[in-house]
Write a structure and sequence with these properties.
This protein has seven helices and no strands. It has 104 residues and is an all-alpha fold. Helix 1 packs across helix 2 and helix 4 packs antiparallel against helix 7. 21% of the residues are buried.
Length: 104
Amino acid sequence: MNNNDLSYMVGKEHEAEVRALIDNDAALLEKVHLRNPKVTLILSILLGILGIDRLYQSGVKLFLCKLSILLLTFGVWWFVDIGYSVKFTQERNYEEIKKIASAT
Protein backbone atom coordinates (compact mmCIF):
# COMPACT_ATOMS: atom_id res chain seq x y z
CA MET A 1 0.00 0.00 0.00
CA ASN A 2 1.52 3.34 -1.01
CA ASN A 3 1.44 6.65 0.88
CA ASN A 4 -1.66 7.99 -0.85
CA ASP A 5 -3.67 4.82 -0.27
CA LEU A 6 -2.84 4.66 3.43
CA SER A 7 -3.54 8.36 3.86
CA TYR A 8 -6.95 7.93 2.25
CA MET A 9 -7.80 4.77 4.20
CA VAL A 10 -7.04 6.16 7.68
CA GLY A 11 -6.93 9.93 7.15
CA LYS A 12 -3.95 12.26 7.03
CA GLU A 13 -4.06 12.94 10.77
CA HIS A 14 -3.45 9.26 11.60
CA GLU A 15 -1.07 8.36 8.78
CA ALA A 16 2.19 8.90 10.70
CA GLU A 17 1.02 6.82 13.66
CA VAL A 18 -0.14 3.98 11.42
CA ARG A 19 3.17 4.07 9.52
CA ALA A 20 5.00 3.65 12.83
CA LEU A 21 2.76 0.69 13.73
CA ILE A 22 3.44 -0.88 10.32
CA ASP A 23 7.18 -0.42 10.84
CA ASN A 24 6.89 -2.42 14.10
CA ASP A 25 4.76 -5.16 12.53
CA ALA A 26 5.14 -5.56 8.77
CA ALA A 27 2.19 -7.96 8.53
CA LEU A 28 -0.20 -5.64 10.38
CA LEU A 29 -2.20 -4.58 7.33
CA GLU A 30 -2.72 -8.21 6.34
CA LYS A 31 -4.38 -8.87 9.71
CA VAL A 32 -6.85 -5.98 9.41
CA HIS A 33 -9.94 -5.80 7.21
CA LEU A 34 -10.09 -2.16 6.08
CA ARG A 35 -13.22 -0.65 4.55
CA ASN A 36 -12.74 1.46 1.43
CA PRO A 37 -13.92 5.07 1.94
CA LYS A 38 -14.76 5.36 -1.79
CA VAL A 39 -17.16 2.44 -1.56
CA THR A 40 -18.66 3.99 1.55
CA LEU A 41 -19.21 7.30 -0.23
CA ILE A 42 -20.88 5.60 -3.20
CA LEU A 43 -23.10 3.54 -0.90
CA SER A 44 -23.93 6.65 1.12
CA ILE A 45 -25.02 8.57 -1.96
CA LEU A 46 -26.92 5.77 -3.69
CA LEU A 47 -28.28 3.69 -0.79
CA GLY A 48 -27.75 5.92 2.23
CA ILE A 49 -31.44 6.68 2.44
CA LEU A 50 -31.85 3.01 3.41
CA GLY A 51 -28.85 3.02 5.76
CA ILE A 52 -26.91 0.46 3.71
CA ASP A 53 -23.70 2.50 3.99
CA ARG A 54 -23.67 2.08 7.77
CA LEU A 55 -24.34 -1.62 7.39
CA TYR A 56 -21.18 -1.84 5.24
CA GLN A 57 -19.16 0.28 7.68
CA SER A 58 -20.02 -1.12 11.07
CA GLY A 59 -22.74 -3.69 11.10
CA VAL A 60 -26.31 -4.05 12.23
CA LYS A 61 -26.38 -1.78 15.32
CA LEU A 62 -25.31 1.38 13.51
CA PHE A 63 -27.49 0.47 10.55
CA LEU A 64 -30.58 0.29 12.76
CA CYS A 65 -29.62 3.51 14.51
CA LYS A 66 -29.23 5.38 11.21
CA LEU A 67 -32.46 3.93 9.88
CA SER A 68 -34.28 5.17 12.99
CA ILE A 69 -32.80 8.65 12.65
CA LEU A 70 -33.70 8.73 8.96
CA LEU A 71 -37.30 7.89 9.77
CA LEU A 72 -37.47 10.47 12.56
CA THR A 73 -36.00 13.24 10.38
CA PHE A 74 -38.00 12.28 7.27
CA GLY A 75 -34.81 11.50 5.34
CA VAL A 76 -33.01 14.80 6.02
CA TRP A 77 -30.26 13.05 7.96
CA TRP A 78 -29.26 11.25 4.77
CA PHE A 79 -27.91 14.48 3.26
CA VAL A 80 -25.97 15.34 6.42
CA ASP A 81 -24.58 11.84 6.76
CA ILE A 82 -23.14 11.77 3.23
CA GLY A 83 -20.51 14.26 4.40
CA TYR A 84 -19.59 12.11 7.39
CA SER A 85 -19.40 8.77 5.62
CA VAL A 86 -15.77 8.99 4.42
CA LYS A 87 -14.48 10.41 7.71
CA PHE A 88 -16.34 7.75 9.69
CA THR A 89 -14.80 4.98 7.58
CA GLN A 90 -11.30 6.43 8.00
CA GLU A 91 -11.74 6.62 11.77
CA ARG A 92 -13.08 3.07 11.87
CA ASN A 93 -10.10 1.81 9.87
CA TYR A 94 -7.71 3.62 12.20
CA GLU A 95 -9.36 2.17 15.30
CA GLU A 96 -9.28 -1.32 13.80
CA ILE A 97 -5.54 -1.00 13.07
CA LYS A 98 -4.87 0.24 16.61
CA LYS A 99 -6.87 -2.63 18.11
CA ILE A 100 -5.01 -5.27 16.11
CA ALA A 101 -1.63 -3.62 16.79
CA SER A 102 -2.22 -3.51 20.54
CA ALA A 103 -3.33 -7.15 20.56
CA THR A 104 -0.05 -8.34 19.03
